[in-house]
UniProtKB/TrEMBL annotation:
<dbReference type="InterPro" id="IPR009081">
    <property type="entry name" value="PP-bd_ACP"/>
</dbReference>
<feature type="region of interest" description="Disordered">
    <location>
        <begin position="1"/>
        <end position="25"/>
    </location>
</feature>
<dbReference type="InterPro" id="IPR036736">
    <property type="entry name" value="ACP-like_sf"/>
</dbReference>
<feature type="domain" description="Carrier">
    <location>
        <begin position="36"/>
        <end position="112"/>
    </location>
</feature>
<feature type="compositionally biased region" description="Low complexity">
    <location>
        <begin position="7"/>
        <end position="25"/>
    </location>
</feature>
<dbReference type="InterPro" id="IPR006162">
    <property type="entry name" value="Ppantetheine_attach_site"/>
</dbReference>
<protein>
    <submittedName>
        <fullName>Mycobactin phenyloxazoline synthetase</fullName>
    </submittedName>
</protein>
<keyword id="KW-0596">Phosphopantetheine</keyword>
<keyword id="KW-0597">Phosphoprotein</keyword>
<dbReference type="Pfam" id="PF00550">
    <property type="entry name" value="PP-binding"/>
</dbReference>
Length: 115
């Protein structure tokens, strides 16, 4: 079995490495997730979470527990970085408290309203 080259240990470096919100190279999964959604909408959020998890977006239901699906604190930070690129700030604690796409989309809408 060949290991998956895109994962937490697969770091992109060098002049052609994609930039993250901190301006530094990150994991290939993070770079892909940040660029995957295009416009931020519920489907874009679903695609971003799926990209971070390395799964098909169709496997994620809006009420699925994302922690059970594999989201951990590092992945929440990656998703949060994606949201910041869209000028939306959400609370890490609130994302952890209610880890569903539906709840996270409500946080996005609240973050937009507060801007």
């Amino acid at each position: 079995m060949t290991p998956n080259p895109v994962g937490p240990s697969a770091t992109a470096t060098g002049p052609d490495a994609p930039s993250t919100t901190t301006g530094t190279a990150g994991t290939a999964a993070e770079a892909g997730a940040i660029g995957a959604a295009g416009n931020l909408d519920p489907d874009g959020l679903r695609r971003t979470v799926a990209e971070v998890l390395g799964i098909d977006p169709e496997r994620l239901g809006e009420d699925d527990n994302l922690v059970a699906a594999g989201v951990d604190s590092v992945k929440v930070m990656t998703i949060s970085a994606h949201l910041r690129r869209h000028r939306v700030r959400v609370s890490f604690a609130r994302m952890i408290e209610e880890p569903t796409l539906l709840a996270w989309w409500r946080l996005v809408e609240e973050g937009r309203a507060a801007s």
